[in-house]
Amino acid sequence: METNPEWLSVIVEVIGNLGFPIFVAWFLLQRMENKLDELVKAIQDLNHVFNNTNR
Predict the structure, then answer these.
(1) What's the DSSP call for residue 4?
(2) Keyword set for this entry (predicted)?
(3) Out of 1, 5, 31, 53, which residue is the most buried by the measure of CB atoms under 10 Å away?
């Protein structure tokens, strides 16, 4: 299979253009997931405190 230099440059350009945005999206989703996990835990703790004070 022969590789065409034009085709190779197109592939490199696509990876260059899409790779960075995909990485940024992944990074932000990871950060958001951690924040959401912390928020869920805080809400559960708050619910536990409210349930114990209403008894």
Answers:
(1) P
(2) Membrane, Transmembrane, Transmembrane helix
(3) 31
